[in-house]
Please model this.
Amino acid sequence: MSQSLLNALFPNEKENDLPFAVMDAIHTGQTAAVLPESSKNRRIPPKNDANLGGVNIEACIEKAARKYDVDPDLIRAVIKVESNYDSTAASDRGAIGLMQLMPETAKELGIKNARDPEENIMGGTRYLKSLLDRYNGEIETALAAYNWGIGNLEKSSRQLPRETLIYIARVAGRYRQLKSSA
Model:
């Protein structure tokens, strides 16, 4: 996480006041340190082998990336952290699909079936792009809004929950990993 985002989100806080594991992971890029053991060993399908029920996930990611002008590696990182490439994933809070869209968000995006991998990726990428535009390309801030919600972020940006800090660190870490292996 960038120092500018930390300063913006926590203007009156010192780094030592944030959860140590999160800050250490952010600074070292070792986000696996803050993950539960079960999350560390998940496997992402190889780029050209990502296929769910006849839908080529990689082709969907590339299509969405081109259409909405979002880095495909950022989309991959969000999908990995949100659902581990499981199109049937559903959270306790009701988010569904590869990019874990809330039903209300999916409806606003015009998505008819959020479990459909292509619709989910296209809608999730469109939403991510709107957040990137809203927050002037600041990836970490857009990810905070994606995870915690725009309303929560804009009402209480100084008090990001630990879960959201960990989420940002995980996605940012995965994104860096994908960029470095390209």
